[in-house]
Amino acid sequence: MYSKAEITRLRQAFWTAFGQYMAPVPSAEGDTTNWINYKTGVKNVYFRMQADNRRASIAIELTHPDAGIRELFWEQFLELRTLLHETLGETWTWEADATDAQGQPLSRIHQDLPGVNLFSRDDWPALISFFKPRLIALDAFWVDAQYAFEALK
After folding, report:
1. Distances from the Cα of 27 to the Cα of 108, 123, 132, 139, angstroms
2. What is the sign of the dihedral through the CA atoms of 9, 15, 18 and 19?
3. Residue range 2-17: average pLDDT?
């Protein structure tokens, strides 16, 4: 069992290491980007990476508090589903009605990696290998897809 301080230290160490690993990787448009805190430029649309002692997850999360507006964003993503899956090279799980850790409603498109432990440094290569290509692919997808959301801003 890990202490809270050790959990915090290991979590911070992993995300710092991942950020340093990704720092030299340019965005799809050739720019420098903050991969850890990726900015989509569209309010309430996030690319989120999470990991704990059981699994890792990368997701597109739609968090608009208005269910109707969130549904409009969801429908737009459904229109782009084929492009998303082609860019990612895999099919992701789609959840129109989910909740976050605080119980807030959201819509989520995600891919999970079970059986990894963020708190074990031995699993860090597997975590990086999971996150890196998917995050780069999400960026490539977003270069084209973001314009479909201009009217919804």
Report:
1. 23, 26, 12, 7
2. negative
3. 91
Has residue 140 been placed in a domain?
A: yes
User: CB–CB of 52/118 below 8 Å?
Assistant: yes
Q: At how many degrees (to 10) do helices 81-88 and 124-145 cross?
A: 140
**How many domains is the chain built from?**
1
Q: Of all residues in the chain, what percent carry a pLDDT higher than 70? A: 99
Cβ–Cβ < 8 Å for 18, 129: no
Task: Give the pLDDT confidence score for residue 2 in this predicted structure.
Answer: 73
Is residue 28, in this structure, part of any structural domain at all? no
**45 domain-assigned:** yes
Q: Read off the pLDDT of each residue in 128-138 and give the average, rounded to a whole number.
A: 98
> What's the CA gap between 128 and 21, in Å, rounded?
9
DSSP reduced 3-state for 24: coil
Length of the chain as a residue count = 153
Residue 70 has pLDDT above 70, yes or no: yes
Alpha-carbon gap, residue 26 to 35, rounded angstroms: 10
- Check whether 1 has a pLDDT greater than 90: no
Task: Note whether residue 36 is domain-resident.
Answer: no
Where in the sequence is the domain holding 113, given as residue range(s)?
A: 41-57+66-117+125-153
